[in-house]
Amino acid sequence: MEKEFWGYRRVDGSFGIRNHVAILAVMDNVNGVVRHLGELVRGTLAIPVWYGRGQFGEDDTLFRRAQIGLGSNPNIAATLVVSLESVSAKLVADGVAKTGKPVKWMAVQDVGGTVAAIAEGVRLLVPMVQEATRQRPERVPLSELTLGVECGGTDTTSGIAANPALGWVADRVIDAGGVVYLSETSEWMGAEQVLARRARNKKVADEIYAAVKRIEDEARSRGVDIRGANPVPDNIRGGITTIEEKSLGAIIKGGTRMIEGVLPYATKASGKGLYLMDTAAPAAESITGLAAGGAQIIAFTTGQMNIMGCPLVPTLKITGNPRTAKRLADNVDVDVSAILDGETLEASGRFLYAEMMQTANGRFTRSETLGDEEVVISRIQPTV
Amino acid sequence: MIGKAIVLHDADNVATVVNDVEAGETVDTSKGRLEATETVPFGHKVALVPIARGATVMKYGESIGLARQDISAGEWVHIHNVESQRGRGDLPEKRS
Fold it and tell me: What are phi and psi of B35, to 5 degrees?
């Protein structure tokens, strides 16, 4: 098995598997400018955002942390931060600059409106693209990889085939000294006892229970059954009966190694190994958190198919459902449904591992090719 | 035609069918053969043994909820006869 990948070296010592020049919107009112710039300057990646204005307290802290994390992701060579006004633009740009990554910022009000901002943005981006495209990737050990594991459009084949195959790969990444993030907190519910048994210490175990309790308390405070929100209707159609069943299948994708810690949303792990990240379950929100935590690659298992990927982090779609592999073939990167017919876990795991390394080495994923990508930062409190 | 169902753990009382199973069809599992007493769609669960009302439905060797009614071996097991115990803000808080 290949133990090295082609990576672009960054100043902070991390390595990217892509070499994007990102145009990061700080608030939604500049999305138009950001999209125009993305279309005008080849080699750039526009990252529009919803919200970003009028937020305060914990919600604001989380939102800005996520934006700084996204702008700092190893897959980005350089970042242009765009906001309406200079305070928020500078705040995010300063956060990204701490990683040593080349960063510039622009405030549309200061520059003189949309037309002037587009002209100024092009002027700023051209040298950034010129510089980024000078860089060549180098061979990097697997220990420099942070893999985010995710599932969406889950059905019962996920827990039987796709998640076990991905868990096998996750174990290999950890054993090589890499990092794995397992997220989607509501999908620990009913399986938290299994996760807690693998916690590094009691503190980590307590954090796992506390994260799940917060969601259950939320359901109680609203007086509703979470079924319908999780499991969602397509999970139920695919044979998933309860959140317990979904969770017990979902956690398998994180593999079997010790859990080192529980990270808040959009936070980078301080060490190597397997970490849980406290995220909302819907794909766009969850994988945005993983990307902001520094994941360079996301392996995303699906049964009924969720087509969503992350624009700055290649997102590999893996299914164990042979019908989905045929019916939604356009969206499937890896078909491991042979497990249902008795193929060994190791054989499927090795196959998936090789496919993941292809993606790390530059091959576009289906969502990357088709543009099924979105950045969605979680909101935890209302705007004023 | 003979159906096939996957049993994930020794302690489980349900198995997951990996083809569409018709009522009356025989289903092969690693715990032996049984007859499906009703239609079980691809990916859905079939009871391996009788499960009494209120008993724990087991998959992956863990609880996936409680039986809402008596379930006989070979029956389709899904939201109509299994009750989740988690994330139930609609139920009064349990004293535990």
Answer: -105, 130
